[in-house]
Amino acid sequence: MLSYAPDRIPRDAVDTVIAFSFGNRVAADGAITAGPTNEALAATIERFVGEHPAPVFAQHEIAHLLQRHGVERVTSIDPVVGPDGTLVYLSTAGVAEAIVQHAAAAGIVLGAVGVIGFADHAVRCVLTARAAGLDAGVPVGVVLPSAYDPESGQPWTRDRRSYLGADLLGRVATT
């Protein structure tokens, strides 16, 4: 429960990659962009699938970056828009559930799932994916991004001290 070393799976065993975003950037006009942390996550995925081709299910901030870079077989997990037109926050568990639902609706068997997430978030990402019924772990040898974005639009993702408390609460919810 308190480890920050995620469970790993062999690189060659990965059938599908799933990715969880971490923070974002909010412009002065309110526009939300991926931000440097999600750009680093997208680059990590792009390198991995370049060496180990696999379909990718990624939270929209990452998926859109991958699609712009020409990465194939990327499914975007998009946020839900509320009745008032605002985006509904998509939690880590919400992303995992959406991935399972998308795959089931498309008749896709996910198999062994390689999880890509921010370094301090990765353990919870793996725990959450497993709670959603997935055979999941971070691929062996993949170095996950660990640099926090002090300008993130989500205050709990700006620095490690702010994040760890939020993460522990999220981990309790997965058990």
Structure explained in plain terms:
Helix 1 packs across helix 2 and helix 4 packs parallel to helix 5 (160-174). The protein contains five helices and ten strands, in the order E-E-E-E-H-E-H-E-E-E-H-E-H-E-H. The chain has helices at 35-51, 60-68, 92-106, 122-131, 160-174, and strands at residues 8-9, 16-19, 25-26, 32-33, 56-59, 74-77, 80-81, 87-88, 112-116, 135-139. The chain has a six-stranded parallel beta sheet, with helices on both faces. The protein has a two-stranded antiparallel sheet with strand order 3-4. A two-stranded antiparallel sheet has the order 7-8. With 175 residues, it is of the alpha/beta class. It has one domain (8-174): Rossmann fold. The chain is 38% helix and 18% strand. The mean pLDDT is 92. Strand 7 (80-81) and strand 8 form a beta hairpin. The radius of gyration is 15 Å and the shape is globular.
The CATH architecture name reads 3-Layer(aba) Sandwich
Radius of gyration: 15 Å
* CATH top level label: Alpha Beta
From the helix content, strand content and strand pairing, which structural class follows?
Answer: alpha/beta
By DSSP (H or I, 4+ residues per run), the number of helices equals 5
